[in-house]
């Protein structure tokens, strides 16, 4: 496999997103890569004021998590659905099983409450293989 096969991504797929299926809920995420211009612009803007502190290791984990969950909620998470008796419907499951509206605030709250979920979403949104042209072409043939 050549370097283009490994690293070239489908820019449309990077922006339209892929579904991460967690069984009773699923999240559609855009790429956290250079092809997602909305992400690149917003991340640059959000991180610029604290860049020096980040480089010096002077940002607490809580502050870093808050900033990154904001960036992801606004630019990476495109949809969030829960499985109901009649199929998928928009929403985020709350701690007590209630269905909360899908919006940026609830996404950020979910990520801050469930850091392991946020870590998984970050890993998937950063995985080149999820947005690679070769995989997209092969998936469309199946």
Structural overview:
The protein is of the alpha+beta class and 142 residues long. The chain has one domain (3-141). The chain contains eight helices and six strands, in the order H-H-E-E-H-H-H-E-E-E-E-H-H-H. It has helices spanning 3-7, 11-16, 37-47, 51-55, 61-75, 104-113, 115-126, 133-141; strands spanning 18-21, 25-29, 77-84, 87-90, 92-93, 99-100. The strands form two sheets. A four-stranded antiparallel sheet has the order 1-2-3-4. Strand 5 and strand 6 form a beta hairpin. Helix 6 (104-113) crosses helix 7. The longest helix has 15 residues, at 61-75.
What value does the Rg take, in angstroms? 16 Å
- How many domains? The number is 1
Unreliable residue stretches: none
Query: Assembly type of the shown chains?
Result: single chain
The helix content, as a percent range, equals 40-55%
Q: Main sheet?
A: 4 strands, antiparallel
N-to-C span: 21 Å
Mean pLDDT figure = 91
Output the structural class.
Answer: alpha+beta
Fold blueprint:
Layout: H1 3-7, H2 11-16, E1 18-21, E2 25-29, H3 37-47, H4 51-55, H5 61-75, E3 77-84, E4 87-90, E5 92-93, E6 99-100, H6 104-113, H7 115-126, H8 133-141
Antiparallel strand pairs: 1-2, 2-3, 3-4, 5-6
Helix pairs in contact: 3-5, 5-6, 6-7
List key phrases describing it:
142 residues; single chain; four-stranded antiparallel β-sheet; 6 strands; globular; 51% helix; alpha+beta; 8 helices; two-stranded antiparallel ribbon
